[in-house]
């Protein structure tokens, strides 16, 4: 039986995954990379929160429970949201500002958080190029999250949920980082933007 090719051709679309524990600073550093490299930044967590709040979503309750419990939302939901967002960005951006026709550069933050989604995305959506990995200590992450909790309004920025998120990160996401390390695809950036910038330059040019 013939296997369908990925939805997006990786010779035309560059996908960079951004991983790191909860509160490692992924979102902050992605914002800076977007400014410097004109990436399209997609955050799996933001897409899930938007879907959770979308009126009529059949996944709202499921997503809410997973987020509160710090567990992984099933890959079918997360991958479909990313695929749709990539398609929409390609349509919009190729007609305008900076991406040459048919070529897209995506920074996908907080994904893949579990091995099944890593394998499925690479096989069916687009083969990823590289993983930027922000490594930092649990103590540092906890401090950042508790500081953020004062203003974020996020249901999972509380000590109970944070502990569960750390557990999920160790059990489900660390194996993903090990998997890509084995493929020589991981650029570790130790939460330091200069380091991250150097590594991204090598991958993305510019
Ligand atoms: P974040 O906004 O990255 O801190 O993610 C918040 C929560 O959203 C996580 O604790 C998970 O419950 C869920 N989530 C984020 N990214 C993913 C993903 N790639 N796969 C499944 N669930 C995710």
Automatic annotation (TrEMBL):
Segment forming the signal sequence: none
Listed SUPFAM superfamilies: P-loop containing nucleoside triphosphate hydrolases
GO biological process terms, semicolon-separated: nucleobase-containing compound metabolic process
GO molecular function: ATP binding; nucleobase-containing compound kinase activity
Keywords annotated in UniProt: Kinase, Nucleotide-binding, Transferase
InterPro entries on file: Adenylat/UMP-CMP_kin, Adenylat_kinase_CS, P-loop_NTPase
The family this protein is said to belong to: Belongs to the adenylate kinase family.
Name this protein carries in UniProt: Uncharacterized protein
